[in-house]
Design goal:
122 residues; mainly alpha; Rossmann fold; 58% helix; Deoxynucleoside kinase domain-containing protein; Deoxyribonucleoside_kinase; deoxynucleoside kinase activity
Length: 122
C-alpha cells in the first residue's frame, strides 16, 4: 500500500496540534488508526526520510499549482511528526530521501537486504 495506517495518525496529530480537529475528533482518528493497524497486515514500512529543506526545494522545482500554498513550516512540522512516529521502530526502513537519484544505489541495496530479512523472519 502507498501509505501506512500510521499516516492517518501523523496527519491527524498535525491537524489536532494546529486546531483543525477537536480533541474528540482527534481521539476518533487515533481509534481509527489503532483499528487499522490491527486489521491491516503489513511486513514493514519504508520511510523516505527527506529534510523539509529538500522537500521544499523539490516542490518549488516541480511548480505544481496545487502545492503552491505549502510552506516550509508545514513541511517541518510533518517531518518532525513522521520522525516521532516512525524513527526507532524495527519494522521501519529509513531510506535517505535527500540523496540524489544517482547516489541511491547503495541505499537501494540496503533496502533489498532489509526486505529479504523482514520476509524471511515472518
Amino acid at each position: 500500500m502507498e501509505s501506512s495506517p500510521l499516516s492517518v495518525a501523523i496527519f491527524s496529530k498535525h491537524a489536532f496540534l494546529n486546531g483543525y480537529l477537536s480533541h474528540s475528533q482527534y481521539t476518533a482518528m487515533v481509534t481509527l488508526t489503532e483499528n487499522l493497524m490491527m486489521v491491516t497486515p503489513f511486513d514493514g514500512i519504508i520511510y523516505l526520510r527527506t529534510t523539509p529543506e529538500n522537500s521544499y526545494a523539490r516542490m518549488l522545482e516541480r511548480a505544481r499549482s496545487e502545492e503552491s500554498l505549502i510552506t516550509p513550516s508545514y513541511l517541518k512540522q510533518l517531518y518532525e511528526l513522521h520522525d516521532l512516529f516512525l524513527m526507532g521502530r524495527d519494522d521501519v526502513f529509513v531510506f535517505d530521501g535527500d540523496l540524489k537519484l544517482e547516489q541511491q544505489s547503495q541505499e537501494i541495496c540496503r533496502l533489498e537486504q532489509w526486505m529479504v530479512y523482514r520476509t524471511s523472519s515472518l
